[in-house]
Structure formats: C-alpha cells, structure tokens
C-alpha cells in the first residue's frame, strides 16, 4: 500500500520549499547560520536524551566514600536466626488407578 500525501499538505510543503529557496538567495549567511544553529541544538538534545549529558567527553567518576562493611554481620546474624519449617509431602492421586492405590497414610514430614 503506497503512502499518499494529501494535496493541501503537498501545497504547504511546496510553499515552504519556495520560501526557503527565496530566503537562501536573498540572505544566505543568515539562513546558513540558522541551519547550523538548529543542527547544533538538535545534536545536543539528542546526545542529552541518550547519555544524560549535553557534550560527550571523558566521564569523571565521583569520589567514592568508604563505608563500613555490613555484609559480614548480616551473614552471621541471618544464618543463626533462620527458622526451619518442616516440609509436608502430599501424595497426589493423578495418574494412579483406583484399585492400585496404597492405603491412606498421613503426610510425611521431612526436615
């Protein structure tokens, strides 16, 4: 399916191109200056959206503060305070025939 542009849009684009060419002929330096400045702004905004910085360059890492290690104390405390719950195994009946079922047993507990 081909994209068809509405005739009014085509007319507006035609007038825009004619106006741009007229301005380029009558005031070439100002027009080129506007084009260069627009391209620069578009580049800076695009770079900011990708990296979070306006200008690409050397990334200077911030000075890192040394924090006291809490990892060792957490491991020791977590291992001692862990609760052990027994698991309960429930025998399922799916896939077994009715006549060959084992006698009803209480669920097994494993520790």
Explain this structure:
With 111 residues, the protein is mainly α. The protein has a domain at 7-51. Helices cover 49% and strands 5% of the residues. It has three helices and two strands, in the order αααββ. The chain has helices at residues 7-26, 28-51, 71-80, and strands at residues 87-89, 108-110. A two-stranded antiparallel sheet has the order 1-2. The longest helix is centred in the middle third of the chain and has 24 residues, at 28-51.
Index terms:
two-stranded antiparallel ribbon; elongated; mainly alpha; single chain; 111 residues
Helix content: 40-55%
Low-confidence runs (pLDDT<50, min 5 residues)? none
Distance between the ends: 68 Å
Global structural class? mainly alpha
Rg over C-alpha atoms, rounded to the nearest angstrom: 37 Å
| Most strands sheet | 2 strands, antiparallel
Tell me the number of helical segments per DSSP (H or I, 4 or more residues long).
3
| Widest β-sheet, arrangement of strands | 1-2
Oligomer: single chain
Number of E strands: 2
Order of helices and strands: HHHEE
Overall mean pLDDT score? 77
Short account of what is shown:
The protein is mostly helical and 111 residues long. 49% of the residues lie in helices and 5% in strands. It has helices spanning 7-26, 28-51, 71-80; strands at 87-89, 108-110.
């Amino acid at each position: 399916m081909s994209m068809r542009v509405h005739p009014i849009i085509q007319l507006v684009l035609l007038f825009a191109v004619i106006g741009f060419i007229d301005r380029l002929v009558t005031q070439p330096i100002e027009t080129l200056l506007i084009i260069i400045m627009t391209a620069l702004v578009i580049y800076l905004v695009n770079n900011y959206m990708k990296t979070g910085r306006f200008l690409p360059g050397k990334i200077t890492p911030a000075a890192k503060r040394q924090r006291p290690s809490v990892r060792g104390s957490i491991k020791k405390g977590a291992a001692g305070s862990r609760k052990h719950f027994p698991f309960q195994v429930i025998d399922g009946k799916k896939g077994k025939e009715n006549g060959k079922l084992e006698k009803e047993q209480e669920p097994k507990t494993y520790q």
